[in-house]
Amino acid sequence: MSTPQDLTRDTIVDFLGDIFARRGNEEYLGEPVNMGQHMLQGATIAEQNGQPEEIIVGALLHDIGHFTSEFGTFTMEDTEDRHHEDAGGAVLERFFPTVITDCVRYHVAAKRYLCATRPSYFDRLTKASVHSLNLQGGPMTAAEVAEFEKNPNLAQIIAVRYLDDAGKRPDMVTPDFWHFAPMVQRMVDRHFDTAPVKQQAPAT
Question: How many distinct helices (H) and strands (E) make up the chain?
Answer without folding.
Answer: 11, 0
